[in-house]
Write a structure and sequence with these properties.
Pathway: Purine metabolism; guanine degradation; xanthine from guanine: step 1/1. Its cofactor is Zn(2+). Belongs to the metallo-dependent hydrolases superfamily. ATZ/TRZ family. Keywords: Hydrolase, Metal-binding, Zinc. This protein folds into 2 domains: 294 residues, Metal-dependent hydrolases (TIM Barrel); 50 residues, no CATH class. Strands 1, 2, 3, 4, 5, 6, 7, 8 and 9 form a 9-stranded parallel beta sheet that branches. Strands 10-11-12 form a 3-stranded antiparallel beta sheet, covered by helices on one side. The protein is an alpha/beta fold. Helix 5 links the parallel strand 5 and strand 6. The longest helix is centred in the N-terminal third of the chain and has 17 residues.
Amino acid sequence: PGFIDTHVHYPQIDVIASYGAQLMDWLSDYTFPAELSFADPKICANAAKFFINQLLANGTTSALVFGTVHENSADALFEQARKKRMRLIAGKVLMDRGAPKGLLDGRDLGRAASERLIKKWHGEDRLGYAITPRFAPTSTDAQLAMAGQLKEKYPDVHVHTHMSENKDEIKAVAELFPHARDYLDVYERHGLVGQKTVLAHGIHMNTDMCKRLSQSGAAIALCPTSNLFIGSGLFNLARLRKYKVSHALGTDIGGGTSFSQLATMKAAYEVCQLQGLSLSAFEAFYMATLGAARAIGFDHIGNFNITNEADFTLLDLAATPLVARRMRSVKSLHEMLFVLMILGDDRLVHETYVLGRSVYKRP
């Protein structure tokens, strides 16, 4: 089946591989300046087209995507995804503090723009909308309350945000929201945590947060290439398993370093190895396909059930000399999949299909 990316930022394609910053500096030094340019619809359209083509070239057929605060950033992405008939969820970002003036929209402006986008795009062909507060430090209680009101009014839409990625971020949340018991509670008290909520990262969580997440049905998007590159930490897969917290894989471009879910699986394996856990290839592929579909709340993609939508990718087992040589000695399906996720990247993607139609073929 086609890969499903549960957390990715399309406006950050031009800051991927930027040197030397951890999360809070990454935002101020790279992310915010890049996102300011998305006030220009032409820049949005160009970036959206490139982004969609990159997803397909990496075998990714569905994604949960951050735009920018600009309404036209979401419009441009939805338009490009509709052309390919992709199943894609996205939203404009909500921020009303802690960012440059050109990226702040306030409670009323954010509500109006979000409602226009929901009415225009949610349920249009295979597209869906996500209410998208960037993360707690860039939203006031008033804006988060507004986001919760939107979710109550439109219960079928998703919620997509970040949580517990970086220790300095967590300290900032504690200072900005002294009334909250923890980071998760900031979102819970505004009705933003439930079956259709995806929280990116979740690296630094305590047991109580895991239990509450499990009960809520919300999912964590694990983004290992980003966590390693920005130096945020190592996600604890064993703890997520123990408390039955829904989880899947995300590339988190541009903090993440590859559009490839194969490369993301490799990084996930390495993160687990550092903690004494060997992630099986079966579980890794599940986290990028059916597990991701279930985390997002889709029941008609992610595997080859007869009634499912025909989104799939063809991988070339001889795409590189090394992969071809290694494949000659594999002795099991698990070993074959493991080789693919350790040695694989976009070079292995031969062709990508959406709804049974070829939308990418390797030159």
